[in-house]
Design brief:
Layout (H helix, E strand, L loop, with lengths): L2 H8 L6 H10 L9 H10 L6 H14 L2 E5 L5 E5 L6 E5 L5 E4 L2 H13 L10 E4 L12
Helix pairs in contact: 3-4
Length: 143
C-alpha cells in the first residue's frame, strides 16, 4: 500500500482513482500552492480524465480531512498545499503570485508574546506577507 493510500485510509476516505491521482500530483514540490483549476489542467495534460467538479470535491474532502491546507491569498483564488506538521509562513508576490514559504523563530516567539500580553492562548495562526518581487526572476517586474 502506498503512502497516499495510507493517508486516505487514515483520513477515513475511500481509496479511489481520482483521490489517488490528485494526491500523487500534489506531492510534487511544483504543485504546492496550486488552485483547483491549475491542478485540473495538470491532470488533463497527464491524460487523466478527472472532471473539474471532481477536483473541487476531492480538494474539499482533503481539506476537511486535514490532508491539504487551503489558503486564500490576495489573488482571491483558493490555493492548496499538502498539510505538513512543520509550521511555516508565506511571502506572496502581488505581481506574479509566486509564493515563498519561510520559517522564523523570532516571528513565532513574538507572536506568542503578543498573544500572552492580550490573554489569548494561540491555537492556530497564519502569516501572509505581500509585496512585489525586486529581482529579475519576476516576469512582471518593472524595475
Amino acid at each position: 500500500m502506498t503512502d497516499g493510500n495510507q493517508a486516505l485510509k487514515k483520513a477515513g476516505l475511500k481509496v479511489t482513482l481520482p483521490r489517488v491521482k490528485i494526491l500523487e500530483l500534489m506531492q510534487g514540490p511544483e504543485n504546492q500552492h496550486i488552485s483547483a483549476e491549475d491542478l485540473y489542467k495538470r491532470l488533463l495534460a497527464l491524460g487523466e480524465e478527472i472532471g473539474l467538479a471532481t477536483v473541487y470535491r476531492v480538494l474539499n474532502q482533503f481539506d476537511d480531512a486535514g490532508i491539504v491546507t487551503r489558503h486564500h491569498f490576495e489573488s482571491g483564488k483558493a490555493v492548496f498545499e499538502l498539510a505538513t506538521k512543520h509550521h511555516h509562513d508565506h511571502l506572496v508576490c502581488l505581481s506574479c503570485n509566486k509564493v515563498i514559504e519561510f520559517s522564523d523563530d523570532l516571528i513565532e516567539t513574538r507572536q506568542d508574546e503578543i498573544a500572552m500580553k492580550h490573554n489569548i492562548k494561540l491555537t492556530n495562526h497564519s502569516l501572509y506577507l505581500y509585496g512585489v518581487c525586486t529581482n529579475d526572476e519576476c516576469e512582471h517586474n518593472d524595475a
